[in-house]
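Progress against Task 2.4 (sequence-to-structure conversion) is shown through the following example record, which the project officer requested during the mid-term review.
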Amino acid sequence: MTSKTFNALVVDAGEGNSYVRQIKKRTVDDLPDGDVLIRVHYSSLNYKDALSATGNKGVTRNYPHTPGIDAAGLVAESKADAFAKGDQVLVTGYDLGMNTAGGFGQYVRVPAGWVVPLPDGLSLKESMIYGTAGFTAGMSILFLTERINPEDGPVLVTGATGGVGSVSVAILAKLGYTVAAVTGKTSGEAFLKGLGAADIIGRSRAADTSGRPLLKAQWAGVVDTVGGEILTTAIKSTQPWGTVTCCGNVASPDLSLTVFPFILRGIRLIGIDSQNCPMGIRLKVWENLTGPWKIDGFKELSKEISLDGLSDNIDLILKGQQKGRVVVDLGASGG
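Structure tokens generated for the chain above:
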């Protein structure tokens, strides 16, 4: 097995501050030490992958590097009793694809503690339609559904055409919540309505710049994926005892807030860390995504590409032009 070669997207530093993406041959010997060697069948493209693929040192410190924070496939070798050759498994988060060679290669080797058995009722490809984005949406929905009910009022989802946002819209609508979706893309309206959104809100309407400490209470809950002024506005507009989850900062990491939403309305702000989520919560979220939250026809949320198509799609996600999920078929590139 140690002489096995495989294909991987490799990112390396070019001239100046540029980074070059190429599909290269690697060997299993190139991979880091770990308990479980996995032949990757599918991965998915996330915003963090795009950052890693463009030299963002806050995500990946050393290059050359293979991104891909998601991977699903078959165990090829295992030193851990919990896994045997041929087991179907998935890995999302932890250090995969950040500073550990990731799912944009046809093999990964990781610690056993990162590996999740493929849930019953879910195919390898379906698990990557979810991937980190779907799992992050699932974490957000877990905390929301523990605290608010559909009859409490509408739920706002920001960045709604993105991976986390689109899965959140679809699941919340399936569970009976009235969903308002924020997007800056007029082309995304039909897409979001098809997922079950009851109202489409433009970015300008979602970002209040008045500076007022509190705004009209509208939302029982919020799934925020962008941060910045839109998150600030959402918090100020949440109903008493409402719940807001936040998982991203593509707009900004800064919040311009007073404590009033929290001490006068009892708003709960919950941060979502899907990367280092404890295994108990991780398994609970995957159980829900596979069972009561599984979206009818959710394959329509995604498009499928090969390694050859990754570079172009990385550029699209960085420009904010990607809708839904992008699944990467690692089998389509040989190896």
